[in-house]
Design brief:
CATH topology: Chemotaxis protein chec
Helix content: 40-55%
Structural class: alpha+beta
Largest sheet: 8 strands, antiparallel
Number of strands: 8
CATH class: Alpha Beta
Strand content: 25-35%
Order of helices and strands: HEEEEHHEEHHEEH
Number of domains: 1
Distance between the termini: 12 Å
Length: about 210
């Protein structure tokens, strides 16, 4: 297993670039699905404590809709979307004519299915690009959704990863729709035992 603390700057730069390609693919897919112009922040690759992730979405007490999937195959890990409540509601209003949801607590089966489909689309587009780059098939599990404070959500999603290490390699970016000020945060958390293989596949292994 590769120790995330041994990752070099050159390796982080390479990981950032594959994050850029995967995120670009995902942003294009989201724009087509919503029929709206979607911009993308420059992706970041960094080593960080798991408990720092909520700070990237407004703090641990920020109410978030989380969509999470497992990445399966030779390279495994977690794919996580964290969507602020305001953005979640606006997206549902775009996708469901006459949608009257005003709070995440009002989300029913139809609204949940729509948000899961967004997770499927983004994860599929990102992982398809990553599969091509690494020449390694990757699949995503069916998505699950939850709404909670960001801090509690991270604790639940990555509990098994924290049993291995309290630090993770994180690829992170944000999708932005300027007209309505919508923002979606996407995180890729490779499993520690997949990190060495990922680095080998992109030609920057130690």
């Amino acid at each position: 297993m590769e120790n995330v603390l041994n990752i070099t700057r050159d390796q982080l730069d390479a990981l950032r670039e594959i994050g850029n390609i995967g995120s670009g693919n995902a942003a294009s897919a989201l724009a087509q699905f919503l029929n709206r112009k979607i911009d993308m922040d420059v992706p970041n690759a960094s080593i960080m404590d798991l408990n720092e992730i909520p700070n990237l979405v407004g703090g641990p007490n920020q109410t978030i809709l989380g969509i999470f999937l497992k990445i399966m195959g030779e390279i495994s890990g977690r794919f996580l979307l964290m969507i602020p409540e305001k953005t979640s509601i606006k997206m549902l209003q775009y996708l469901i004519p006459g949608c009257e949801v005003k709070s995440l607590t009002q989300i029913g089966e139809m609204e949940g299915s729509c948000m899961k489909e967004i997770g499927n689309i983004l994860a599929g587009a990102f992982l398809n690009a990553l599969s091509v780059l690494t020449q390694t098939p990757m699949l995503n599990s069916l998505p699950s959704i939850n709404f909670d404070y960001a801090g509690a959500m991270i604790d639940n999603v990555v509990a098994d990863m924290s049993a291995v290490s309290d630090k993770v390699l994180m690829l992170e970016t944000s999708f932005i729709e300027e007209e309505e000020d919508m923002r979606i945060h996407i995180f890729i958390l490779p499993a520690p035992d997949s990190l060495k293989l990922l680095l080998q596949k992109i030609g920057v292994a130690s």
